[in-house]
Amino acid sequence: MAVFELARFTVDPANIEKLLAGRDQMIAAIRETFPGLIAASLARLDERAWIDVWQWESLEAAKAGAEGAPSVPEAAAMFGLIDEVLAMEHAEILHQG
Questions:
Q1: What is the CA 84 to chain-centroid distance, rounded?
Q2: Which letter does DSSP use for residue 13 in this model?
């Protein structure tokens, strides 16, 4: 069953351009390394807070991606821009319209 991976974090406003500039390369590298990524969406909640929603084919794929992502250089570079991770959760998708 497909799942959402929900990450809520803060980023210093001075690092936002770097965060956005490297995102496509990070997603491509994660997809290449960890099969099962369906989609990734980033949204800003306020000046510092962000939410990243990734849809994976399965919980196993999501967990593998979450655990292994720090070893992917493009992801490690993006993670280095995060000030604080506020939440990280996985949720089973029961319905999509």
A1: 14
A2: G
Contact 55, 2 (CB under 8 A): yes
pLDDT band at 66 (very low <50, low <70, confident <90, very high): very high
- Measure the N-to-C terminal CA separation of the chain; round to a whole number of Å: 16
Q: How far apart are CA 63 and CA 50, in angstroms?
A: 21
Tell me the pLDDT band of 6, cut-offs 50, 70 and 90: very high
For residue range 50-59, list pLDDT tens digits in order.
Answer: 999 999 999 9
In three-state secondary structure terms, 82 is strand
pTM over 0.85: yes
The pLDDT of residue 31 is: 96
> Which has the closest alpha carbon to 27: 83, 59, 65, 58?
65
- The Cα–Cα gap between 65 and 46 comes to 27
Q: How many CB atoms lie within 10 A of CB 96?
A: 6
